[in-house]
């Protein structure tokens, strides 16, 4: 049942009202959006909450003119509109900040903002003076602190995102769509963005905030619409509990807290010493890092995507060409070994991109479940494979990991993202391991499956395996880790206990070493205590 949330439009009195009526979008036989109704009022943050693949981004692409709806109607200030492309949407006062920024890295801020809306001087020369002035005006109004002459590739990700918002505001956007805007931000940048959204809301802007992160949605929303499998399942106020919202997202009760016993680490059997990885252009993407993991311990690597995490895990597995330093597992050097030999040494590996690196989509589920052992007993003898044992193995792990598939013979590429991840995880945990590595272990996985996969990771720790987790989701890092290593621009900022605060971790993710981050966080907390004491 939908909860009616009163609007304060009468008090606001400015901005645009946006309404979607019965929006349906089909791709062949797939119904991505199924008769969705949505009303977004000016001066309001309206969040679209749902799992990856629920249909949130498809709906916003329809609204922004990137897709044509199969059925339904879009209304702006109660008047029906039709968009043939983003230009029409922008002309109607709708702006969109995409999850992956639409910026030219080698252009300045002013040049990027002017793209598609260029003004020229006499003689046909580009006139950026007015654009620079408007950027400064908007930046001052909202506290963006953006230099119009800065080159995009030199700016932090959070500032690049502000440039995208400026682009929309400069084109007089009254409705702003923010599609998973915190996916590439540090915790501090996330908090700053949420603050900016509050300012935009106070200025009468209508904001559609698309996310799957319950904490952020609750912090900033006036109303939350939950989408599941392409349908609206209900509206909720921001006061709804995370448990209630998660249940709406998944369709059943789920536990959002991982109950795990304290780690009982044993001998340190996996060590990385002075590891450096060079990119094809010679850049140090992993820069002289050292750490160790003990038996029965989970080390989680935190950091914004693109700070060397991928190259670190690939170096361990032997997938990087330009590696120096040492990687040792139970005294055996792995640097210079073949991938097959490293896997044979007892390393289980869940890659960050399951569809490209973790599975062969055209192979059956049963075949994918033995990709790491297809040529050895019990599944093969010489050149002959044993279909009966392969089928029995598939039956066991499909049941154990609750893989939703029509049959073991179905192509792995036909499964949902969450079920594909279960297949990869089941395969890698189906044999005794000496090291387990999981990169983005629950990316694109529904809340219920996250709960299950987290328990399996902890179970692997509890049988005495050293575990290395890489995740850009700070909640996941805090949930799983016994210790946390933070990477920034390929360098190790420090290794801290699992109980370290989000604020301190956020400072490290932005490039501060552990000692400096701890001191600054303590100072900030002391100042906050003084302020609260003064208010009393």
From TrEMBL:
<dbReference type="InterPro" id="IPR003439">
    <property type="entry name" value="ABC_transporter-like_ATP-bd"/>
</dbReference>
<keyword id="KW-0547">Nucleotide-binding</keyword>
<feature type="domain" description="ABC transporter">
    <location>
        <begin position="18"/>
        <end position="254"/>
    </location>
</feature>
<dbReference type="InterPro" id="IPR027417">
    <property type="entry name" value="P-loop_NTPase"/>
</dbReference>
<keyword id="KW-0067">ATP-binding</keyword>
<feature type="domain" description="ABC transporter">
    <location>
        <begin position="270"/>
        <end position="514"/>
    </location>
</feature>
<dbReference type="InterPro" id="IPR050107">
    <property type="entry name" value="ABC_carbohydrate_import_ATPase"/>
</dbReference>
<dbReference type="Pfam" id="PF00005">
    <property type="entry name" value="ABC_tran"/>
</dbReference>
<dbReference type="InterPro" id="IPR017871">
    <property type="entry name" value="ABC_transporter-like_CS"/>
</dbReference>
<protein>
    <submittedName>
        <fullName>ABC transporter ATP-binding protein</fullName>
    </submittedName>
</protein>
<dbReference type="GO" id="GO:0005524">
    <property type="term" value="F:ATP binding"/>
</dbReference>
<dbReference type="InterPro" id="IPR003593">
    <property type="entry name" value="AAA+_ATPase"/>
</dbReference>
